[in-house]
């Protein structure tokens, strides 16, 4: 089975519910919405993963292997298994385009489809959209903290699996990173690749200078040397020595990387040594356990840094490893539906998000019913109809998403995107939605 396409990458209850729905003729149109209940110290979210979600929906098919597993499980009757042979997603998808800024409780994606179809896709759809949104929302904070210094994705090796590492490369690039060290991420999503060397390369040689020279001659157009295997000062001095040997052959050292120690102090020392040796254009790249807070500290110290590599803390979103995401039924048989339990009350009905822009700044969002005539720009767009994508593709195009995010950050006031204790962006409910929510609560 193909991990990226199989419908069995789901929770068992999706299939057990489907059999019951079909047995009782519960196939009327339903509206499900995917949203985040709260933002853990983020202030805002960055929508991501729409391209992969739509691709999965377009290719959702139960093949022989899936049907054989269902039969062998003993959990499903023969009629249901045979019916799933012809299963396809035929619904409509409305979504915020990738790279959109959004906030807690706002639907980032809406499914309108027959109830069994909308139900089955829940687990994998959340898996796709949640993860990339999680990483993009974390990565953009490193991008903001770095200012004009380029940021690179180094995190695949500690990501939670290969698919996660590849998606993280995409989400980080969407968030404004300049390149990735993950080859498959580069190949699949046309992200610029970058990389240096490992400490093992230095250790495999009897001396550091030989390692530097051999690497430079093998890769004359990409000479970035790791200088902290033993001692940063001596490593920087050896870079100057090797540069003199390489110069007659027209090979220049493009950069050095420091991966440990006091990065700010080491960068200042290295800059002094390189400049004294005539390597004023050689860049200094730092890495090693970095996140938005450590990057902010480096910037405060005015460290002479020309590039930043981030890995584990971003590709795992270490400080907040999941978002409180939800995918809930909000309309069925033209009747509003909504969960109504302590701490998890939903907003019923089919909704739209209306954004107000004043003097080039986002001034507030209103979550309203889709059929309400409200001021502001609607954020949910139709991106799929009858199971097939519609539109020009900009809603899920990666380069368009990067530009969209950049515009959104410009429109979001600094107090709302602060790294620490951001102000709460104003999100209100429309009168129609409030009335519907209250009426449903009274009925329940």
TrEMBL record:
It comes from the Bacteria. It catalyses: 5-phospho-alpha-D-ribose 1-diphosphate + nicotinate + ATP + H2O = nicotinate beta-D-ribonucleotide + ADP + phosphate + diphosphate. Residues 151-299 form the Nicotinate/nicotinamide phosphoribosyltransferase domain. Pathway: Cofactor biosynthesis; NAD(+) biosynthesis; nicotinate D-ribonucleotide from nicotinate: step 1/1. The keyword 4Fe-4S does not apply. Residues 378-436 form the Nicotinate phosphoribosyltransferase C-terminal domain. Its EC number is 6.3.4.21. One of its GO terms (molecular function) is nicotinate phosphoribosyltransferase activity. Transiently phosphorylated on a His residue during the reaction cycle. Phosphorylation strongly increases the affinity for substrates and increases the rate of nicotinate D-ribonucleotide production. Dephosphorylation regenerates the low-affinity form of the enzyme, leading to product release. Pfam families: NAPRTase, NAPRTase_C, NAPRTase_N. Residues 8-129 form the Nicotinate phosphoribosyltransferase N-terminal domain. Keywords: Glycosyltransferase, Ligase, Phosphoprotein, Pyridine nucleotide biosynthesis, Transferase. Belongs to the NAPRTase family. Catalyzes the first step in the biosynthesis of NAD from nicotinic acid, the ATP-dependent synthesis of beta-nicotinate D-ribonucleotide from nicotinate and 5-phospho-D-ribose 1-phosphate. PANTHER family: NICOTINATE PHOSPHORIBOSYLTRANSFERASE. This is Nicotinate phosphoribosyltransferase. The lineage of its organism: Bacteria, Pseudomonadati, Pseudomonadota, Gammaproteobacteria, Chromatiales.
């Amino acid at each position: 089975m193909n991990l990226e396409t199989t419908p069995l990458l789901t929770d068992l209850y999706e299939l057990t519910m489907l059999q019951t729905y079909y047995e009782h003729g519960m196939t009327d149109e339903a509206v499900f919405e995917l949203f985040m209940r709260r933002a853990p110290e983020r202030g805002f979210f960055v929508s991501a993963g729409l391209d992969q979600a739509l691709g999965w929906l377009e290719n959702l098919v139960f093949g022989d292997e899936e049907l054989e597993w269902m039969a062998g499980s003993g959990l499903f009757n023969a009629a249901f298994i045979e019916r799933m042979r012809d299963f396809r997603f035929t619904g409509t998808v409305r979504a915020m385009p990738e790279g959109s800024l959004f906030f807690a409780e706002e639907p980032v994606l809406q499914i309108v489809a027959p109830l069994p179809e909308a139900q089955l896709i829940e687990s994998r759809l959340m898996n796709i959209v949640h993860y990339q949104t999680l990483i993009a929302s974390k990565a953009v904070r490193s991008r903001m903290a770095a200012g004009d210094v380029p940021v690179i994705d180094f995190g695949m090796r500690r990501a939670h699996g290969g698919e996660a590492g590849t998606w993280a490369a995409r989400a980080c690039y969407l968030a404004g990173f300049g390149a990735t060290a993950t080859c498959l991420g580069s190949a699949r999503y046309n992200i610029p690749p970058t990389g240096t060397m490992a400490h093992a390369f230095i250790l495999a040689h009897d001396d550091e200078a030989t390692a530097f020279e051999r690497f430079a001659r093998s890769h004359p157009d990409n000479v970035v040397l790791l200088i902290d295997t033993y001692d940063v000062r001596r490593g920087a001095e050896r870079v100057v020595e090797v540069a003199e040997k390489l110069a007659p052959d027209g090979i220049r050292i493009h950069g050095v990387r420091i991966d440990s120690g006091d990065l700010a102090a080491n960068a200042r020392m290295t800059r002094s040594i390189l400049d004294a040796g005539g390597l004023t254009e050689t860049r200094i790249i730092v890495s090693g356990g970095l996140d938005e807070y450590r990057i902010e500290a480096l910037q405060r110290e005015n460290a002479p840094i020309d590039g930043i590599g981030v890995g584990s803390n971003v590709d795992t979103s270490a400080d907040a490893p999941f978002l409180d995401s939800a995918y809930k039924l909000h309309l069925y048989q033209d009747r509003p539906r909504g969960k109504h339990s302590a701490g998890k009350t939903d907003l019923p009905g089919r909704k739209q998000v209306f954004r107000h822009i004043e003097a080039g700044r986002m001034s507030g969002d209103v979550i309203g019913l889709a059929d309400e005539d409200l001021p502001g720009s609607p954020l949910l767009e139709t991106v799929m109809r009858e199971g097939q994508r519609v539109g020009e593709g900009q809603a899920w195009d990666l380069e368009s998403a990067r530009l969209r995010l950049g515009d959104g950050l410009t429109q979001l006031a600094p107090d709302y995107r602060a790294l620490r204790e951001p102000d709460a962006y104003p999100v209100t409910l429309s009168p129609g939605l409030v009335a519907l929510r209250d009426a449903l609560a009274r009925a329940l």
